[in-house]
Amino acid sequence: MSRIAYVNGQYVQHSEAGIHIEDRGYQFADGVYEVCEIARGNIMDMTRHLDRLNRSLTELSIAWPMDRKALVVVIREVVRRNRVHHGLVYLQVTRGVARRDHVFPAAGTPSSIVVTAKRTDPNTLAARAAKGIKVITVPENRWERVDIKSIGLLPNVLARQQAKEQGAQEAWFIDPDGTVKEGAATNAWIVTKDGTLVTRPAESGILRGITRTTIFDVAKKLGLKIEERGFSVDEAKKAKEVFMTAATTVVMPIVAIDGESVANGHPGETTLSLREAFFDVAERTPAC
Predict the structure, then answer these.
(1) Dihedral of CA 40/46/52/54: which sign?
(2) What does the longest C-alpha to C-alpha distance in the chain come to?
(3) Which residue numbers are catalytic?
(4) 110: closest CA among 15, 12, 19, 4?
(5) How many Cβ atoms sit within 10 Å of the Cβ of residue 66?
(6) Which helix (H) or strand (E) holds 257?
(7) Residues 146, 168: Cα–Cα separation, whole Å
(8) pLDDT tens by residue, 87-137
């Protein structure tokens, strides 16, 4: 079946979709994005994703491309037209099309928006979770405003490529003092020997992941304690369990860091219980 995309007011064939060459997202990475998981025919945590989109747009002084309720209709329609039962929906908003100039375009220049959806195989993700993944560590080299979900992701791209070349699936950015910040596209967590979940505070230095936020609700349901604080690479390597969270992976066990096994080198029970309970706790918006 041909894929369908939404581009600036029109539903078009994915293979024929395009943007203007002077779109500021293309020329300056002057835009933001969101990715929502689609699971069992539901768009997960859409309210929180749109709340974060609003924050990102506000921080960069980019206007909403349409009314929020209208955007919800578009997102659901793109998912419906692509018949995605399990997968991802991606939306991107840029400052719009204007003659190339570093300063903002004239007031009233409309924002640009693209919405796409694609299928993923839940069995593939489940198999990966059952086995666990590997991460490497890289020095932090991004701009300071990583709390904004900007489309300017070149350092993340290079980190993920380095991970792939080393046989890993994710890269953690590390502060000069050895503290873990976050992954190239995920938030980082550890489970201490006493079963406490630990993740870095999201007030600054990392993106406040939506799946990360929902895990607080999941942990409460399961009676698990969460401590927001920094942790070092060494502490992570010695932890009872390590995992990452993201809309693209939900809760994914990490079984090795820089080639060193975590615990016994297998996914831990706490991590898997969080993954299993996630879909019963997260907000579900029917795709159709």
Answers:
(1) positive
(2) 58
(3) 149
(4) 19
(5) 16
(6) strand 250-257
(7) 23
(8) 999 999 999 999 999 999 999 999 999 999 999 999 999 999 999 999 999
